[in-house]
């Protein structure tokens, strides 16, 4: 997103991606109203919504047998009053195709950053390995957006503060049938939590477990695991037998952390590289995109003059640190107060009293809708569009 925004503003950008494609199944799928609003501001919303996706206007949690409506997005002050579910590879392919319309955008796939080029105390670029050999890319600014195991932040020696996470997630698919219930996102039962995302032909399932409990679950065997899944979503019936190999189940380790300082001379980290997000609320992608927009807004002008000072980089952290801290605080509260409590409970579950109020007072459902759908301090695109190669050649 940052690469696209900067190229669109006329700045030469090289984006290095270590994989040959964007096809990762565990990136998460949520495109929040705040992100859709940015796509609208970029003038791309019609084209974007032609990609296969699902639209969720309200969502609920299932506590035992009781369904509690949790959020109503239909009153948000955005053009798209829904949460989009779209595999992240479609989203990334879309933006790389948009980027490629600009001559300033250079996307190198299968280019893995292995180290930084440091001159004096300043980061002057990166070293990468590619199928055709070693590569050095020099730049007035290097942006580490290489996720929560960021090589860039590690090589830069930036200090990470861990907030801990009491949960991990098991990620797998189960075929979907048209007669299945609608989009209930979270299912809570004593000792178990299952989040099910409707991907048309199949359910993308996230089974939440206590941190480190995967070995114990494997020892109990696949049959016991299938029984657990079926007990929390009985409508799946015999379809749970489709899970017939541990290879189909991916363990996703949940981390919540953030950098104390997001930058050093010549270098900035954003997205999960600056702050790994918990899957709670499914907001990590959207936060990363908000970081990208803020970075482009603040740095496009200095970059156009080929000079980015520490003060410019500090401005990005100042702008994005509060939304990050506030969101992570909320995620940690949900992890510790709700998810850990459910996983540790053996008794029949009742929804917490606060959530029961949502049933009686529909207006309350607008609060989580706003927090999740728009979040704290939403960004807006302020960078210019210098025009694509096609437009410049026809001028
Ligand atoms: C279990 C789980 C489920 C989640 N579900 C959701 C969800 O539904 N919705 C949501 O919004 N968020 C979700 N999140 C969080 C979300 O995945 C992240 O917050 C988000 O992807 C961060 O985006 P990013 O661009 O910063 O990093 P990433 O999406 O991790 O992207 C980093 C990119 O850098 C590449 N890369 C890594 N190292 C190198 C290197 N050395 N050289 C070159 N390229 C490199 C990677 O291949 C990758 O393409 C989930 C997280 C977890 C753990």
* Structural category: alpha+beta
Count of discrete alpha- or pi-helical segments spanning 4 or more residues: 12
State the total count of DSSP E strands: 20
Strand order of the largest sheet: 5-4-14-15-16-13-17
The pLDDT mean sits at 93
What share of the residues does DSSP label as strand, in percent? 25-35%
Descriptive labels:
20 strands, 395 residues, 26% strand, 3-stranded antiparallel β-sheet, alpha+beta, single chain, globular
Walk me through the structure.
By secondary structure, the chain is α+β, with helices and mostly antiparallel strands. The protein is 34% helix and 26% strand. It has a seven-stranded mixed β-sheet. It has a three-stranded antiparallel β-sheet with strand order 2-6-3. Strands 8-9-10 form a three-stranded antiparallel β-sheet. The radius of gyration is 22 Å and the shape is globular. It starts with a helix and ends with a helix. The site of flavin-adenine dinucleotide has 28 residues, from β1, β8 and α8.
Provide a short characterization of the protein structure.
By secondary structure, this protein is an alpha+beta fold. The chain contains 12 helices and 20 strands.
